[in-house]
Design a protein that fits this description.
By secondary structure, this protein is α/β, with parallel strands linked by helices. The protein is 36% helix and 27% strand. The chain binds guanosine-5'-triphosphate and magnesium ion.
């Protein structure tokens, strides 16, 4: 059996309302400035094709009601993220800072993160130094995020619009091509009462004790938070938690494996296993092992 799954990298565009997110995407797609977009209600998805790749770009509504409802879902499963900041917006620095750092917390640590000091064509903008200081941007050097960049942008003049896209798309492609699969060390399915239905260990003999300890730590401390935690790092592992209907999937992967890809792998395995569980009620280790081995990626 072979599962072939097409990955469409997700790029999430965040930033407060009126920062210029929709205008930026339009400029990127058409090369033109359009100045009369309505505020985005919910979110809009754009598809940008490049060679054989398809990037799904989600333009998130910046209003508070959207920020607090579904930003986290998109940001935590993206491969790239942009935070658009209107550099004439002196009055909302505290709110910008609060949301910028929430995004920093949600974004997978291997994803690329771009900060736009946008509307750079206007007079009376905050200087880069003022922005860095007010938003604590120097702290990004201590963040576990591997890749963060600041761009001074304008959708009116086109400043840095293409440059940022090239940086994002090239880095994401390079990353995905370098590591097309993920090493799943263990895999569990639990029912809605958190009782295990399937427990499979796929790691080599020499590391089984190390994994066992991590599983114990996870069960004691983190299992009760399963509804709120997408993933957690314990020692040399990252534990991913996914819920669908009445089932939970727990996935243990090596820490250096890319988190966003691990989540995709986990979901593929999870849905496959779930359909088997429903059909056969049991899933033997060999089936799961074959499933893990056979996940193939296409871009
Ligand atoms: N001068 C200037 N104006 C811009 C720029 N980018 C966007 N704008 C203007 O800023 C306003 C808001 O732009 P939008 O793109 O709708 O903002 P948004 O971030 O999508 O806002 P929400 O959808 O409400 O979250 C519009 O009047 C745009 O014309 C820019 O680079 N320079
Ligand atoms: Mg918009």
């Amino acid at each position: 059996m072979s599962i072939t799954k097409k990955i469409h990298p997700l790029i999430a565009i965040t930033g407060l309302e009126k920062a210029g997110k929709t205008t930026f995407i339009h400029r990127l797609k058409t090369g033109e400035f359009k100045g009369d977009f309505h505020p985005t209600v919910g979110f809009d998805l754009s598809i940008i094709k490049e060679d054989d790749y398809r990037f799904d770009v989600v333009d998130l509504g910046g209003h508070q009601s959207f920020r607090s409802t579904f930003w986290e879902n998109f940001v935590s499963s993206c491969q790239g993220c942009i935070f658009v900041f209107d550099r004439t917006d002196n009055d909302r620095m505290d709110i910008v800072k609060e949301w910028l750092w929430k995004v920093e917390e949600w974004i997978p640590k291997d994803a690329n993160f771009a900060f736009f000091a946008n509307k750079s064509d206007l007079d009376d903008t905050l200087s880069l130094e003022e922005i860095v200081e007010s938003l604590d941007l120097t702290k990004f050097s201590e963040s576990p995020l591997k890749s963060f960049r600041i761009f001074e942008t304008s959708s009116v003049s086109g400043q840095n619009v293409k440059e940022c896209w090239t940086w994002l798309s090239k880095s994401i492609r390079r990353r995905l091509e370098a590591k097309p699969s993920v090493n799943v060390c263990a895999f569990e399915i639990l029912d809605d009462r958190l009782e295990p239905l399937v427990e499979t260990v796929l790691i080599e003999e020499g590391r089984k004790a190390e994994l066992k300890e991590v599983q114990q730590v996870f069960r004691t401390h983190s299992l009760k938070m399963i509804d709120s935690l997408p993933s957690i790092s314990i020692d040399n592992f990252v534990v991913h938690m996914l819920k669908k209907g009445d089932y939970y999937a727990i996935l243990y992967v090596d820490k250096e494996d890319e988190q966003s890809i691990a989540r995709e792998t986990g979901l593929t395995l999870f849905f496959e296993t779930l359909s088997r569980l429903k059909r056969e009620l049991t899933v033997d280790d060999e089936v799961i092992k074959n499933m893990v081995d056979s996940v193939k990626w296409e871009f």
